[in-house]
Amino acid sequence: MARPRPEPVQVVKQRRDAALSALAHNVPFIQFLGIEFDRRGDELTAVLPFDDKLIGNPLLPAIHGGVTAAFLEVTAIIGLSWTMLWDEIESGAFDAAKLVEEGKMPRLPKTIGFTVDYLRSGLPRDAYARAVVNRSGRRYASVHVEAWQDNRDRAFAQATGHFLMPRRDG
Amino acid sequence: MKPEKTEMARRFTEAIPYAKALGMTFTAIGDGVAAMQMPFDERFIGDPQTGVIHGGAVSALLDTCSGAAVISHPSNPGATATIDLRIDYMRAATPGQALRARAECYHITRSVAFVRATATDDDDENPVATASGAFTMDGK
């Protein structure tokens, strides 16, 4: 039996980017912080462009610890949702435009607990972060996140969080 | 609050652009304890379907309030930075209500200050979130 022809690359990319945009751009606080997501295949990198309002210590200057915590938490939540929805995005079952229009986007995971380690002070420049889902069950998930600035192997913060997964019945 | 404390507290938040951006203000500060509040703002929403504020905004309030508690401790370190902070989210904050935080610096060594903090909304019997963390101390 002949294998079905693969879909054109533009179709696949458009579907993945629409899903990612629907996830991230619907949340006011993600917009407030200016966080964007860079996608390579299924790998997401969160990008936090530097802005003066993000400063917590003007003398150094350094990014506020609350900004770092929020950046890591946003990265974890979007990364977890992305992993959770990936199969549906690939199959085409997840129609981002339709779900947004009907107000039926799946709920985001809820944070139960989140622990941030501050390894270095956050410099006044762009920051990047990636999340790894260590366990994802039906109800609970555990996610680790690392954030860095100029050098990928010199993280300035890391976090581990536990999340309550949204119910997906109906 | 005593006038000089009020002045110190005002200068503290004025000097922190992110605390200012989130509209945080002090309600009390001194002797290792700080209390702050943050108004509800639609820009801080984390769940567009319910209008509940994002956990990241709650952590910012708890982190700032904890840092202020450290600075206000009698063996004042001058400046401090967060080493680690753990936040537990007990329930969703009620949309439309301001958040209040209270932080207490309960133990201090030459290099580390330990802090506990709680965030509530109008229902102050049931915390929205609690935090515990370690902060740097400039040893003297």
Strand content of chain A: 25-35%
How many strand units of chain B?
Answer: 8
Helix content of chain A: 25-40%
Please identify, by name, the CATH architecture of chain B. Roll
Integer-rounded radius of gyration of chain B: 15 Å
CATH architecture of chain A: Roll
How many domains of chain A? 1
CATH homology group of chain B: Hotdog Thioesterase
What does this structure look like?
The complex is a heterodimer of chains A (170) and B (140). Chain A is α+β, with helices and mostly antiparallel strands. Chain A has helices at 9-24, 28-33, 65-91, 96-101; strands spanning 36-40, 43-48, 55-57, 62-63, 110-118, 127-136, 140-148, 155-164. Chain A has one domain: Roll (Thiol Ester Dehydrase, Chain A), CATH 3.10.129. Helices cover 32% and strands 32% of the residues of chain A. A six-stranded antiparallel β-sheet of chain A has the order 1-2-6-7-8-5. In chain A, helix 1 (9-24) packs across helix 3. Chain A starts with 8 loop residues before the first helix and ends in a 6-residue tail after the last strand. The model of chain A has no long low-confidence stretch (mean pLDDT 95). With 140 residues, chain B is an alpha+beta fold. Chain B has one domain (3-136): Thiol Ester Dehydrase, Chain A. Chain B has helices at 3-14, 17-21, 55-71, and strands at residues 25-30, 33-38, 45-47, 52-53, 82-89, 99-108, 112-120, 129-136. The longest helix of chain B is centred in the middle third of the chain and has 17 residues, at 55-71. The chains are: A alpha+beta (170), B alpha+beta (140). At the A-B interface, helix 2, strand 3, helix 3 and strand 5 of A face helix 2, strand 3, helix 3 and strand 5 of B.
